[in-house]
Design goal:
6 strands, 4 helices, alpha+beta, about 130 residues
Length: about 130
């Protein structure tokens, strides 16, 4: 797991994004934030490394409601796809969407959102969310 945490941190730093590694069974996530946290004007209390949820509410509360509905529908479709896919092959697929997100001073930013199920030795810890500004 140490490898994936370091990879997520590096990915967030390089892409100035937010990466969330979620344990779907334990309902727990690790978050890693690049420079985007400043552009979203996230307070330090919202920049927690660990959150007791698989939902990144600190970000989702800023997403336009129409985009949020589309995102959730896409995630359900994607979950159905990966359930039918061999575990060793799941990481080869990803779901992508573009979200309108409220940033600093109420400005709307477009963000790319990706979901990837990782092939990890820890069975339930395999959901990777990545968000980056375009």
């Amino acid at each position: 797991m140490k490898y994936y945490k370091q990879y997520a941190k590096t990915y967030a730093d390089i892409h100035n994004g937010i990466v969330v590694l979620s344990d779907l069974t334990a309902n727990w996530s690790f978050t890693f934030m690049g420079e985007i946290a400043e552009r979203l004007h996230l307070s330090s209390s919202k920049r927690k490394l660990e959150i007791n949820s698989i939902w990144e509410d600190f970000l989702l509360e800023r997403v336009h409601p129409e985009d949020l509905a589309v995102k959730h529908a896409l995630e359900l479709q994607f979950l159905e796809l990966v359930k039918k896919t061999e575990p060793k092959e799941r990481f080869r697929y990803q779901a992508n969407s573009v979200l309108r997100v409220e940033g600093k001073d109420g400005r709307i930013m477009l963000m790319s959102h990706q979901i990837i199920y990782l092939d990890t030795p820890v069975k339930n810890f395999r959901n990777w969310h990545y968000a980056a500004i375009h």
